Amino acid sequence: MEKKKWQKPVIMNRPWDTMDRGRIEVEINRFKHDKEDNIANYINEIEKWSENLKSLIPKFHEIIENKAKQLVQDMGDECFKEYAKNHAISNFLFPSYNKRLSLDSILKKCSMPKKPLN
Asked: Can you give the pTM of this predicted structure?
């Protein structure tokens, strides 16, 4: 019983938004069947949040693909390369330009919710 008193605040104050996605999944699996409803409910909300973020990856992929195509169309290949070097999402634009941007590569580059994109 003593453990339960401090466990909930510790779980609720974890830095979920700066944790690696793999660590988030480990923590979800560790606590989602907790006997205390408040902890299980909180972890359920974290799981939904994590899945919602992951579900955005295909849309993000589509946006990047469209942005790269539009930039090449507007600027041409050489100007695109110069412009993309300094773009905030250059780590995504170049793979897209080279037809190597996949959902998995985006997931790897976006390994935690608050990780900067570049």
From this structure: 0.76
